[in-house]
C-alpha cells in the first residue's frame, strides 16, 4: 500500500540528509542541560538568541547576505553535541524534488505546495531544533508537514454511532464502481463486530443488478436488505429501511445510492430529496484511492454540490501512489474515515492520520 509514495518520500529524506551540512567538531555548541528531575531542558527556553548570534558570528560573510534580503536564510541546528547548518539554497533542490515527487504521486497541487512549504519552514530559518540525528530532524519536519494536511477534525465514525440516537442513518455517495456497495457490506460487518445491528437499503435503483448485489452481501452477512423495483425512488427505499429499523430496533441504516449522476444538479436533487425524506445523520463519500487526482477532484465536486461528513477511500491495497489519501481531507475539509484494503468483509481500516503518516515514513531503517 502506497509503496511508490513511500519510496519517493524516502528519496527526499536521503537527498535532504546529504544537503544538510554538519559543522565541524570545533564548532561551539551547547548541549541540552539536564534538569535535576532528569528531563531535558532546551537552552533556547533560556537564552536562545545569544546562541543564534554566536553561530552567525562564526560563519563569515553570512550575516551580510542575510541582511541583504534573506536570500540565504539559514538555520543553526544544534543536535546533541553537533550542529547542523541548513541553508535555504542547499535545501532548494531537495524541496523541488519533493514537490515533483508529491505531484508524481498524485497529490493535489496546492496540498503538495503546502507540504513543501511546511518542510521548508521547519528546517530553514532563525530557529534551533534539538534532535538526536539529522535523519530525525528531517523526518520530523516531513512528518509534521504531512500530518498538517492529512489530519482534519471531524467525524469519528465509531463514537458517532455509539453516541447518536438510533437508528443512525448513514447514506453512501460516490460515482459508480468505486466500491460503495462493498464498503456498505464491510461497514455492516464492522458494526456487527462492535455489537451494532444494521439494515441495508439499496438506493441504487438505477443499475440493473444492484438489488441482487446488495442482497448477496446481506445474505452472506445475515442482514436484512430493503429494495424497490429498478427505477424507483432512492429516498423511498431508504425511508422504508428507516421505518424497518425503527420497528425492529435496528441500530444503523446503511443506504446505498447510484453513482450515475451526470451533473451536480442531479446529485443535489437526489441528495436533497433524501435529506427531506429521511434526513440522514451522516453522508459518507466513497471513492477509490487508485483514482488519485480524479478521486480528489470528485470529492471536491461532491462536497461542493452536497456537503458530506467523511470520506472512505477504497482499493488502497491496490494504490501505490497515495496522493488521494494525502490530499482529499485537506481539499474537502472532511476527514478520511476508513480505507478499503481488499475485497473481503474485514478489509476496512479505520483511518488515523498520524498512523498513516508514520507508515509512509516507516521504511528508513
Ligand atoms: N482491491 C479492492 N477492491 C475493492 C475494494 N472495495 C471494492 N472493491 C471492488 O471494486 C469493485 C466495485 O465495487 P462496488 O462495491 O460494486 O462499487 P459501487 O459501484 O461503488 O457500488 C468490486 O469488484 C469490489 O470487489 C477494496 O478496498 N479493495
Ligand atoms: Mg453499488
TrEMBL record:
Ranges for region Disordered: 1-73
Compositional bias of kind Acidic residues: 14-29, 44-68
Catalyzed reactions per annotation: GTP + H2O = GDP + phosphate + H(+)
SUPFAM superfamilies: Domain of the SRP/SRP receptor G-proteins, P-loop containing nucleoside triphosphate hydrolases
Source superkingdom: Archaea
One GO cellular component, as annotated: plasma membrane
GO terms of molecular function: GTP binding; GTPase activity; signal recognition particle binding
InterPro entries given in the database record: AAA+_ATPase, P-loop_NTPase, Signal_recog_particl_SRP54_hlx, SR_rcpt_FtsY, SRP/SRP_N, SRP54_GTPase_dom, SRP54_N_sf
Membrane topology: Peripheral membrane protein
Biased composition (Basic and acidic residues): 1-13, 30-43
Compartments in which it is found: Cell membrane; Cytoplasm
Matches recorded under Pfam families: SRP54 (PF00448), SRP54_N (PF02881)
Uppermost EC category: hydrolase
Domain SRP54-type proteins GTP-binding: 335-348
Binding annotation for GTP: 174-181, 256-260, 314-317
Keyword Hydrolase: yes
Quaternary structure, from the entry: Part of the signal recognition particle protein translocation system, which is composed of SRP and FtsY.
Its biological purpose: Involved in targeting and insertion of nascent membrane proteins into the cytoplasmic membrane. Acts as a receptor for the complex formed by the signal recognition particle (SRP) and the ribosome-nascent chain (RNC).
Family: Belongs to the GTP-binding SRP family. FtsY subfamily.
Protein name, UniProt field: Signal recognition particle receptor FtsY
Native organism: Halorutilus salinus
Taxonomic path: Archaea, Methanobacteriati, Methanobacteriota, Stenosarchaea group, Halobacteria
